[in-house]
Amino acid sequence: MSDPIAQETTSGIDQQGIDLVPTNLRHGKARDLFFLWAGTTTNIFTVSYGALLVILFGLSFWQAIIAIVIGNLLAYPLLALASLQGPKTGTTNMTISRSSLGPRGARVNGLFSWLMLLGFEAAGLVLVYYAIAALLGIFGFQLSGGLQVGLIVVLGLIQMLLPLIGYNFLMAAQKFATIIFACAFVILAVLILPKADISASQGIAGSASVISAVSFVIVSGGLSWACSGSNFSRYLPANTKLTAVGTWAALGGFVPYMLLQSLGAAMATVAVGPEVDLSDPLAVPAILPAGFSVPFLLLVGFGLMVQNGTNLYSSSLNLQTAGIPARRPVVVVTDSIICILITCFAVAQSSFYGLLSAFVGSLSIWLAPWVSVYLVDWIMRRGNYDLAGLMNESGGPYWGRGGVKFSGFIALIVGMIVSALFANTGYFIGPIAAAMSPDNPSFAADLAIPTGILTSGILYWVLNASNKNKNLGLA
């Protein structure tokens, strides 16, 4: 294996992949994770998630606040727990998943995670394009044809730089972004809150809708970030206090999500014309003073580029875990090209948002069982991993049968099936969820997350408890 320090020094490009981060590259404090995750989550997407609780789920403002509080209190401990393994192992969550799924079994997991993050990257780049195009339109520049494609390519190349340069640059950018975005969203709150009517609603929603809204909050935040927790904490020194790692990682996402989603819920109560669709993040300027439109659009563009930098960094690592033998910079470039192509397609196809929404809505079906197997495995082995075994793709203590640990793989697949049976993602309603609300299945409660977590966690524990050392590879 080549020396990552030499590569970083000579080329200026961080070559660190899923391989173990060497001791002499470990640095920083646990509190740095706060700025990483705060910079990642402090953007217009988070505001929109709060607005959708009122617009899409039909919650009152106060019901939305309840869903936001409960959902985030449940979600961000998952990110905290999934960040604890990084300092001790020096590798990524998907690589650590080899201990429960086997090297080849974890490839499927890595592929799922890569597809998830690629979807978020593409959505972010689409909105970056629309924000910059709208900004240019304010100054009289109208784009069409080749100019649209040219702008998309330029924006895609710019957002590629953060993860390509590497972890250190990404951490610095996130810290800067956190401060800038916090100030900007304070201004946004000052402009919006006086117009909000928090006593108004689209009707008081039933308990099933509130439960589904809580699930939406969970999967759109801490649960979707959990599979990237150790991707960044692995750069901390191995002796970093774990309570500090978990606390700072969780707070970095929890605080912005609580504040910005609450702001989004308040924004959704503002009376606007029927032509304004507040579920579109770029519709916000319609309820703001004209002078704030330009800085708002700049904020959207820059903020989503920073967020996409984090997504690109993690997705490139996950694709390596999926068995693609390419260095991380090569995968980052490949991801960026795919995002550019998807964005070009999305600009021309109005159905793109519907397809993307359907994809994001299904994430909990995989994420809930995965995080359960991952954390139960960590608990059962008391946080101890064979580091050489994690990096061994042709044998070792985690090989299982044919490279698959069937206890983990079965628990994951069964959990996904059960999760799907209880799911209500808006476009897909599981048969059990539909049976629980026979009069109106579309309003069935989405129970994919709790059923997936319980099924996979209990099943994995049962399959391993009788012969712990053999099945977990601790002998």
SSE arrangement:
Layout: H1 4-11, H2 32-41, H3 44-55, H4 61-81, H5 85-89, H6 93-96, H7 98-101, H8 105-138, H9 146-165, H10 167-192, H11 207-220, H12 222-226, H13 229-233, H14 242-267, H15 293-321, H16 328-348, H17 352-361, H18 363-380, H19 387-391, H20 406-421, H21 431-435, H22 448-465, H23 468-472
Helix pairs in contact: 2-10, 2-14, 3-14, 4-11, 4-14, 8-9, 8-15, 8-16, 8-17, 9-15, 9-16, 10-15, 15-16, 18-20, 18-22, 20-22
Describe this entry's structure for a reader.
- With 475 residues, this protein is mainly α.
- The protein has a domain at 29-356: Hydantoin permease.
- The protein contains 23 helices and no strands.
- The model is unreliable at 1-11 (pLDDT under 50).
- GO terms for molecular function: transmembrane transporter activity.
- Keywords: Membrane, Transmembrane, Transmembrane helix, Transport.
- It is a multi-pass membrane protein.
